[in-house]
Input
Amino acid sequence: MKKRILACVGFLITLPVCGQGMDDVEKISVYGQTPLSTSTVSEYSAFGSVQTINAQALSQSQAISLAEHMKNQLVSLHINDVQNNPFQPDVQYRGFTASPLLGLPQGISVYLNGVRFNEPFGDTVNWDLIPLAALDTVALYSGSNPAFGQNTLGGALALQTKNGFSYTQNELEARFGSFGQQQFTVQSGGNQGNWGYYFVANNYQEDGWRDHSESELQQMLATLSYASDVRTIDFTFSANNNEMLGNGAIPEQLAELAGRNAIYTQPDKTETSFQQFSIKTDNVINEQTSWQANIYYRQNEINNINGDDSDYEECESGTLYSLCEEGEDDSLERVHFVGYDEDVWLSELSDIDADEVDGTFNTGFTDSESYGAALQWVRLSHFDASDSLFSFDNEFIFGLGADQAQISFTSNTEFAILHNDSINDDRSVTGIGLYDTDSRVSLKVKTKQHYLYFLNAITLAEDFTLNLAGRYNYADVSMKDQIESGKGSLNGEHVFHRFNPAISVNYQLNQQYAVKLSYSESSRTPSPAELSCADEEDPCKLPNAFVADPPLEQVVAKTTEVSLHYDITNFSAVATVFSTLSYQDIIFQQAGEKSNEGYFINLDKTQRQGVELAFSKQLGDVDFGVSYNLLKATFESPFVSFSPVNPLGPNREVNPGDEIPGQPKHQFKLHANWQFNDEINVGTEFLYASSSYYRGDEANENKKISAYAVTNIYLNYQINEQLRLSAKVDNLFDRHFDTFGTYGEADEVLGELYPDTEFTEYFVGPSRPRSISVSVNYQF
Output
C-alpha cells in the first residue's frame, strides 16, 4: 500500500507538465457540509472527497436511471445487476451497498432534499422512486461522515431537486428504444416575484430484454417555492406508482442452451406505491447567523411477488398424502395448512396430487409510514488577533432531529404448481389456494431515531481548514408479532446509541495543490428486517419470512482518508488513498438451496481499502475524464460460511484477507464529450471492471465472474432553440458479460427438460445486450 501511495503522489507531482500554459484559477465547486446545509464551502474544506453531477450532465448522457449514470461517471462506484432491471440495481461504492434488496450490507445513506431516503424497514434504497428529470444536483460524499447519520459507513448520496428558481423552462420529451422502451416526460418551472413552481411527470415502460420482464413507472414531483433576501421555503410533494419485473440470475448452462434472455422461474415482481411531502426552509438572521429546518411525511407500500420452485416433498400414509419438509434430524415433517387443523392432509383438501405441487408463490407486503423533523443552526465568526497567524474564521453548525416510522409487514407462502412440463413452458407458478402455516409472518414495527450533531470548521490564513464534527444517535426498535406471543415470537425491544466523531485537516499548499487528511466514524443500527432474521437454528427467506431473534450488534465504521488535489484552468486531478474498518458488520448467511434463504450474523471485522486516481480536462471543444480505482474489500476475522450450495460443499472456512464477493478489485472509466459545433455534441462512456467472486464464495475457493468492458455512445442535435433530437447506443459492441453471480440448484427445475446437460451450481446476472434509444425534446 505504501508503494501505491507514493505512486499517487508522483502522479500528481508530474501533472503540471500536462497543464503547461494554463492559467491558475481558484477552485469554485462548492458543497454543503450536512444534509440540511445551504451555505457552501469549497471542496477543499469539505470532509473527504465529493463527486458531483448536475442536471445538464444527466440530460446529456441520456441515462434512464440515476444508477446508470453514476455507474459510468463516478469513481469507485459499481453496479451488480442482480434483478436485471435498470431500476433495481445493487449500487456498490467503495465496497458498501445501497440496494432495494434485503440481505445486503447496506452502508450508504441517501438523502433527497435533506430528507433521509433509506427505507425504515431494511435501510434499503428504492431507486425507482427517484424521477431522474427532477434532479438538479447529485453529490456523493466519501467516508464515514457522521454528519450524514445512520448508514453512512462508506459514503452518503445527497440529491437536490429543481425548483422554480433553478429551472425556468417548459419541456416535453419522448423516448423510444429497444425492447419496447417508451418514455414520456413533461416538466415545467418558473417564478414571479417571491414565488416559484416546478412540476415533473414521467411515464416509463419497457418489455425488458429478459423474457417476461416488463416494467412500468409512473413518477411525479411538484415544488412550490418562496424566496426573499432572508428566507427560502420549498414545499415538495412526490408520488410514484411503479411495477417492476426483474427475474434475476439464471444458471450458466441455461444461458447457453436457451439464450441469455431466458429466465429461471417467474414472476419476480415488485410494486411500489409511494408518496412524500416535505417542507424545507433556510432563514438568514444576520450576516453571521442562519438556521435551516425540514419536516416530512412519507408513506410507501411495497408488494413483493415471487414465483419459485419448491423445497417441499411428497409424503404419504396409506391412502393419505401431503407435503413434507426436512426437520432438524433430517426426518420428514408434514406441513400445516393455514386455517386447518394440524393433522389435515393435502388429499383431504384438494384433488391435486402432491407430486404436482412443485412450486411456491411467495408474497410479502410492507406498509411503512414515517415522519420526522430536523433543525440546524449556523454561526459564522471571525476572530482577530494582534498576530495575524492567530486570526481565523469559524463556522459552527449545531443540529438535532427525530425520525419515527410505523411499519406493517406480512408475508405468505402459497403452495403452487410450476409450469415446467416442456422447454416451451414459461416456468411461472399457479397457486392452489393453500398456504404454509410455518411461513406466515405478520409483524408490526415501530422505530424511533433521535440525534444531535455539530460541525466546527476553523479556517486559518485562507489556506488551512480544521474540521471537527460529531453526532450522537439514539435508536429504539420495537417489534410486535401479530401471530404468536411469548417465547418463539418476533416480539422484541432493541435500543442502540453511539457518539461518532470526525476530524479533518485541509491545507491549500498553493494555487494548484491542496492536501486533505480525514478520520471519521459512523454507525448503523440493525434494521428490523435483520433483527427478525438472525437465528441460525431457524433461517428465513427474504423478504418472505422472519424468525425469533437473537440480538445483533450495531455496525461501526472507521475511515481514514488522504487525498492530493491539483487544479488549474481546464484541468483537475485528484489522488486518494482510503481505508475503512467495519466492526460487527452484518452479513447474510445463505442456509438453503435458494440464495434468499438464510440468516444474518455479525462479523468481528471487515475492511475496505483502496486507491483512486481521477482527472478531467477540457481540450478545445472536448471535455473528458478518466478514473481508476483499486479496491481491496476483505474479511478480517475468521468465520464459517454455511453456503450449502457451494460447488465444494457447505461450511467453508473464511480466513482474514479473503475478499468480499461481488467487488471488482480494479475499475477503469473514461467519458468524453465533443461539442462538434453549436448544434451537435457527441459523447462516449467506457467502463472496465475486473473479475470478482460469486456471492456465496466468501472463502475465495472457486472460479470468478470474468472481467468485462463495455462502451456506450450518445449524440445530441439541437435542431433549433426549441427542438433537440438525441440518440444513444448502450453496449455498442454487444459484449456478453456478467455483473453478478451466486449459487443455486437448477436440477430440480431443469434436469428433466435438458436430460443431457449436467447443471452446475453457478447462477449469473447477464448483461443487457446492445440497445438503442432515440428521444425528441421540445422546450417552450
User: Anything to note?
Assistant: The chain has a mean pLDDT of 91. The radius of gyration is 27 Å. The chain is about 5% helix and 55% strand.
